[in-house]
Amino acid sequence: MRRHRTLAAFAAAGVLASAGCAPSANADGLHVVVTTELIKNWTEIVGGDRVAVETIVPPGGDPHSYEPSPNDAAKVARADLAFTNHLLLEDHPLIKLFDANVPEDVPNLSLAENAEPYGAKLIPLVEDVGLDVVWLGFGVRGETETRSAEIDIRLTGATGPGEVTMFLTDAFGTPEIYWNTADGLTDADAISLPPEAHTHVNWTFTEPGVYELTTAATADDDGAITEIPEATFTFAVGVNPREVREGAAVLDDGHADLTADLDTRSFVVRDDERGDLAPADVVIDVPTRSIEEIPDAEAFAFLGEPGQELYQLPQAVLGKHVHGEIDPHLWQNVANAKAYVEVITNALIEIDPDGRATYEANRDAYLAELDELDAEVAAAIDSIPEADRQLVTTHDAFGYLADRYGMQVAGFVVPNPAAEPSASQVEALTETIADLDVKAVFVEPNLHARADVLRRVAEDQGVQVCTLHGDALPQDAPTYIDMMRQNASELSRCLGGH
Q1: What pLDDT sits at residue 173?
Q2: What pTM did the predictor assign?
């Protein structure tokens, strides 16, 4: 059974309580369990003294990487109502925690997926990292019964003149190894992804030549197993890719994913520019310019001796970075936050009809405050000279802010997290800041580990390093309205507004 539904699905199924049997608002209120501080803030405002809200991700925590504990499972199991953001904002173990432990007859709602009918504007998650090699990751697409399904993509065969590794580095630069042919192939050589997700990884090859890597996939969807047969991908490492297979498409730049398609039970190469390509029709170029030295750090000893050269396609984005096609940070557009509030209000009314008057009055008063906030944020950003409305940040959390209020998310090269940035990578970031005459760059307080290179280059260029709040509320003023006011004020102050 699907453990996550929309509001309409709950109502149609008749599982929401009627007025005669709804959980009563007692001294402690309805027990609502949510993933993040932002959702807690909105729910407490609408619910007033009829709700008691408990959040799983702690204050200042990062929902992208939070690892739940057994105590968190107990919290979720006591819920009368549960809210997540989803659209792959939260790390998959957190979503699985909710789907496995929210009681069967309790609404378990993703706000982002439910917000569009209430006027929310969803935008694609656009990634533009100016690498001079292909940016190659893994993806999953296709229908599943549950959002907590897991899809394991396994390396089942590898041929070539040298060894191959595929690994991911977390926000602190620590590698998580998925494949290393030097250790032999086992069933453990797999990367696990949630539905409709993709992730970025590092690929390394020790010798030049032609490599063929064969993969298969298994989807576990609440016990229902789907197998995706093997597919073979060809890599031209340090050799001319156009001489490897006549007529094949050569992937040598841009962004592409080796994608497991659950609907067709097959693999495709999903390229941002060319669409879907059959694995047999593609050669992936790993050119000589991709040569890097193995860093002198114990964590990277699995690659070989420090200083040894190898060919590398970089992860590009710092930290574990699993996401879908839609940007999940809807609330950076205040109009979208209003849609979230509508979803929360209607969910509370469905489960506690006696509280309708309270919930609707609280909603109406708060929506009026959000209208004022929307105008305030717009005015602050309008005060910035148009040429200076450039956003350089550590995290792709501000696309909705840029779209709503007329800013530009500036692209820049994020260095490969497996090694110290090369001179060319630092130069590319420096040139981006210089070419755009960027007045300031912005870091998030809960993501300092990802900001080292950005901070260093900005300081070398005499550019201000300022603060924006993306996924976590300011600890000195922990409300959504405070957060957006601080962001608007900081943008205006740092980028020349008034």
Answers
A1: 63
A2: 0.74
